From TrEMBL:
PANTHER family, sorted: PROTEIN GLCG (PTHR34309:SF1), SLR1406 PROTEIN (PTHR34309)
Family matches, as Pfam families: HbpS-like
Name of the protein this chain belongs to: Heme-binding protein
Organism the protein comes from: Massilia mucilaginosa
Length: 135
């Protein structure tokens, strides 16, 4: 039977700390969500000053990236390029940039979703968190 890596608690803490540090270093008030490969929430941090709505958007972005096995920006681009029917895809709600899958040894093992600043900045924070796993 094949096996694959998975996010353990220490991994989640490492991702969360690095993403938090990136947000604080840039003075960005955001919510950071981390989920497993099935889109189940493992961690949620709403930094001081982050909009309450961001605590709903960030987990949706993470879930979309985990279930879709690609950055949530891909879906935003599909819709912005005119394929609005894509809005009807089931279980996909966070179709905005800022959801990034966590990939280890070719396996998507989870995702990070961030909400609260510009979409590319949300993605920057998510990627900074994920990069901490390689250290």
């Amino acid at each position: 039977m094949p096996s694959k890596p998975y996010l353990n608690f220490a991994d989640v803490q490492k991702i969360a700390a690095a993403a938090h540090a990136e947000a604080v270093a840039n003075n960005w008030a955001v919510t950071i969500a981390i989920c497993d490969d099935g889109g189940h929430l493992l961690s949620l941090q709403r930094l001081d000053g982050a909009a309450p709505l961001s605590s709903h958007i960030a987990p949706s972005k993470a879930k979309t990236a985990a279930l879709g096995r690609r950055e949530s920006k891909v879906y935003e681009d599909i819709i912005n390029n005119g394929r609005t029917a894509f809005l009807t895809v089931p279980f996909v709600e966070g179709m905005l940039e800022g959801g990034v899958p966590v990939i280890v040894d070719g396996h998507v093992i989870g995702a990070v979703g961030v909400s609260g600043v510009k979409s590319d900045q949300d993605a920057q924070i998510a990627k900074a968190g994920i990069a901490a796993l390689a250290q």
